[in-house]
Amino acid sequence: MMDEPRQTLICSRSWTSADSELAFVTRSLAGAASRHSEVVVVVPSPAGSITPDGAFDLAGAGWSGPGEWPAAGHAVRPAQLRGAPTVIVDEADAATLRLAKELAPGRAVAAVAGRPAAPGVRPLRFSGAPEGKPAEVIGVHIPVNPLAAQHRFNGLGFTGYLLVLSDRAGAPEPRPPTEMAAWLTARFPAADVVVIENGSAAVWRGRALRGEVNVDTRTDLWRLLAHAKMTIDLAPGEIVARECVESLRFGTPIVVPSVSAACPHADAGGGMSYRGFSDLLRAVETLGDDEMRAGAARRGRIYADARYGDPVAFVDQVARQLGLAPAL
């Protein structure tokens, strides 16, 4: 009698969150794990429900409200879950860890986010290089379409702008943007500063708004990244800083906060980091030099392609770190 295929259990509240880096990384892990095991994805939804979602069927373990896990002791084990699965949670919060323990008692848990992790929970790393242990960083595959570099964003009639990814959300109007971006428009009055915020790109020059266009798709964003002089990400994603990696893969250097998941990408040679207003302005001025920018662009692309551009290496890393069986 043949052994049943190994399973990986993924407990995720973020799975259906649009534009969430946590959801992106969790989905990527599910895809990689599916090359080595069966994957069961559990989400907060009515107990016993099955919702098709592309490559995976989302199993409902119950819920106490939209996006919330069921109360303690009320989780329902999905019928397709069996054996002793490897367990991945998107967040190592108390409710998600309690659910994982109910569905897979006694099993070790790996967490995408949530640090410091609870006892018995292993935090997964997707950015940085722990001293002496670079192999512990999982190079999640971050795809880009190279064709985006061939044609500029249709909404702009120029290239070579300072692209700013905003650190605020829900702004009611395109007033002079977030404070850091406002300093840029004052310090570099001749530069076009394009601020991405709330699904739109606002063009500023000398603190004056010159226009605003919608950014509707990922391809729109890729084109903006590919044709910028540099990308200034004021609030990089906390897990892998996806947009910074995408920028580097297009050969566009980055300027990022010194305490962030994006800082190791800049430290690898792909740009510069800053600690405050003056640091930010100095970094932008430094990368304004053509030779400095060309060097950062070259180093950043090599680094990002090697670590985050190889889907086969990503699958192998996931298998190795989670102890999964050989590829199916």
Under the CATH scheme, the architecture of the largest domain is: 3-Layer(aba) Sandwich
Rounded to an integer in angstroms, the radius of gyration calculated over CA atoms is 21 Å
CATH fold node name of the largest domain: Rossmann fold
Quaternary structure state of the chains depicted: single chain
Strand order of the largest sheet: 3-4-2-1-5-6-7
Number of helices: 9
Architecture blueprint of SSEs:
Layout: E1 7-11, H1 21-33, E2 38-43, E3 50-53, E4 56-60, E5 86-91, H2 94-103, E6 109-113, E7 121-123, E8 161-165, H3 179-187, E9 193-197, E10 200-205, E11 208-214, H4 218-226, E12 228-233, H5 242-249, E13 254-257, H6 263-270, E14 271-274, H7 277-287, H8 290-308, H9 311-322
Parallel strand pairs: 1-2, 1-5, 2-4, 5-6, 6-7, 8-9, 8-12, 12-13, 13-14
Antiparallel strand pairs: 3-4, 9-10, 10-11
Helix pairs in contact: 1-9, 5-8, 6-8
Structure overview:
It is a single chain. The protein is α/β, with parallel strands linked by helices and 328 residues long. It folds into two domains: 7-141 and 311-322; 146-308, Rossmann fold. 30% of the residues lie in helices and 22% in strands. The strands form two sheets. A seven-stranded mixed β-sheet has the order 3-4-2-1-5-6-7, with helices on both faces. Helix 6 (263-270) crosses helix 8. It is elongated.
